[in-house]
Design goal:
By secondary structure, the protein is an alpha+beta fold. It has helices spanning 13-24, 46-51, 70-80, 91-107, 114-120, 125-147, 159-173, 182-191, 195-200; strands at residues 5-8, 30-33, 59-62, 65-68. Helix 4 runs parallel beside helix 7. The protein is globular, with a radius of gyration of 17 Å. The model has no long low-confidence stretch (mean pLDDT 95).
Amino acid sequence: MAKPVLYSYWRSSCSWRVRIALNLKEIPYDIKAVSLIKGGGEQHCNEYREVNPMEQVPSLVIDGHTFVESLSIMHYLEETRPQRPLMPQDCYKRAKVREICEVISSGIQPLQNLIVLIYVGEEKKKEWAQHWIMRGFRAVEKLLSSCAGKYCVGDEITLADCCLVPQVFNARRFHVDLRPFPIILRIDRELENHPAFRAAHPSAQPDCPPEVAK
């Protein structure tokens, strides 16, 4: 069977989530880099529009199918490859994982996505991103206060952790003051040296600019 192909951009937090999930499940895959800035964005070319009609990353070609949207991709991986699970068995914990994933993927990330920041404009984009990340992280911190263990939900790594770590990176990129979010910071520190997370980090990607790569 052909190796899965992930259409990814090195700094895309949505691509990053999927890279983490693939790594945690030990699924070998190839990366096809899609630059979101070169020539106005390769995601807008006709060829890529055939892969992903939303003209966004990530997209994953796997099992003879093409999937778009990071959460749907991760749930497909979880359902078709249940080994090394990233969802708890307990129904309450599963709901908490979905809750945190949704707050990040629907309530924070889209509001500071590249396409939105371009529309907001250079002058206001930092303030805009900081506002929405702070607002979302206040909610995430509150949710984590009742469900976090070593990680976001209990003591096992879940899809919630796959979503949280890239969003913390984005927060730092926009110089968000993270001191009000001690649980978020603790979980991020816990995971920063995990091999699956390190391998998925933007600086480890084949399309990361040399001046950024470690």
